[in-house]
Design brief:
The chain is an alpha+beta fold. It has a two-stranded parallel sheet with strand order 1-2. The radius of gyration is 13 Å and the shape is flat. β1, α1 and β2 form a beta-alpha-beta unit. Helices cover 55% and strands 15% of the residues. It has one domain. The longest helix is centred in the last third of the chain and has 20 residues.
Length: 67
């Protein structure tokens, strides 16, 4: 799960507060990113790459198929 929202946005904060504990409970990887409108740093892009790998591993462990 990837949650992206604008900086200091209440709906983003509410969704993050709901989804983070849910993802932990379900064992799903989650990455949250609050954007201020500037370019994304290379370190954040690396985090996204790692997160995608975690999602793929989670899907493989749980035999999730596309369809």
């Amino acid at each position: 799960m990837l949650v992206i929202g604008p900086f200091n946005c209440l709906p983003y904060r509410i969704s993050e507060a709901i989804l983070k504990p849910l993802s932990i409970q379900q064992g799903m990887p989650i990455l949250t990113y609050e954007s201020d409108g500037y370019a994304v740093s290379p370190s954040v892009l690396r985090q996204v790459d790692v997160h995608i790998q975690q999602i793929l591993e989670h899907a493989a462990r749980n035999h999730v198929t596309q369809g």
